[in-house]
């Protein structure tokens, strides 16, 4: 089993609809993608809350598959700051930040939260866009055999970083 799993998360937000979507990709220590997920948020307050939903979904999936040591990457500097401090705990998305921090503290033996440039987060971004067409009650998580469109994103080298 890999020593450290790298999880990239991203979200999309449509202000006019107050809706969003999320996506994530998990890679092993050889940068091989082993898990991906996507889902739709029927109602979400803002882009930061959508990012927090993406984080929680990815952490729940990783924990349920026994991943212990993780590096969580997001292109949202605000989300990274919210997960590394208590500064945003009373904000609109505070309950989501606290849930993510609880998962990080209780479900993993080692965690690191890192800001990733958007160019290094494009597969998670595309998965979030894919999530827009999902039924909000039926998010999807793929393991090992990822769908061809995800493999296509990976083959374009869009997860470097």
From TrEMBL:
Molecular functions per Gene Ontology: nucleic acid binding; RNA-DNA hybrid ribonuclease activity
InterPro entries tied to this protein: RNase_H-like_dom_plant, RNase_H-like_EbsB-rel, RNaseH-like_sf, RNaseH_domain, RNaseH_sf
Recorded coiled-coil stretches: none
Domain RNase H type-1 stretches: 8-130
Domain of life from the UniProt record: Eukaryota
This protein's name: RNase H type-1 domain-containing protein
Organism: Panicum miliaceum (Proso millet)
């Amino acid at each position: 089993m890999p020593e450290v799993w790298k999880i990239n998360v991203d979200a999309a937000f449509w202000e006019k609809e107050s809706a969003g979507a999320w996506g994530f990709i998990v890679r092993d220590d050889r940068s091989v993608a082993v898990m991906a997920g996507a889902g739709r948020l029927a109602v979400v307050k803002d882009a930061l809350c959508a990012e927090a939903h993406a984080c929680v979904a990815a952490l729940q999936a990783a924990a349920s598959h026994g991943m212990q040591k993780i590096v969580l990457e997001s292109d949202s500097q605000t989300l990274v700051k919210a997960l590394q401090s208590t500064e945003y705990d009373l904000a609109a998305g505070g309950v989501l930040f606290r849930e993510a921090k609880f998962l990080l503290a209780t479900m993993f033996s080692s965690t690191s939260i890192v800001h990733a440039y958007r160019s290094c987060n494009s597969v998670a971004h595309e998965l979030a866009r894919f999530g827009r067409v999902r039924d909000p009650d039926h998010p999807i998580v793929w393991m090992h055999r990822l769908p061809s469109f995800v493999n296509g994103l990976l083959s374009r080298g869009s997860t470097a970083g």
